[in-house]
Amino acid sequence: AKKQGIPLIEGTIHSSDVFYREDSGARPTYWEVLRDEKGCLAVEMESFALFHNAKVLGKHAACILTISDSFVSPEITTAEERQTSFTAMMKVALGAVLE
Questions:
Q1: Annotated catalytic residue 23
Q2: Domain range holding 50?
Q3: In terms of CB atoms within 10 Å, which of 83, 84, 87, 92 comes out highest?
């Protein structure tokens, strides 16, 4: 990413298959606890099996993520933006493989 001039943020990510929770209105919310108390930068749902299998097999694993939506702001990514604007992540992944 650095060689390509693409911004990169490294950090803790929470992996879950449950994104939409009923919030009782109590504060802090589940997402705020993950962010503020656990230091999680984002939540994703695809890499759990990858890391679980790597751990079971005694292997290393990594994932590259692109942020598409937010639970803390009203910003959304349109379907067209998802198709056309996530090329930076693909360039980073291909660059890492080719090194």
A1: no
A2: 12-98
A3: 92
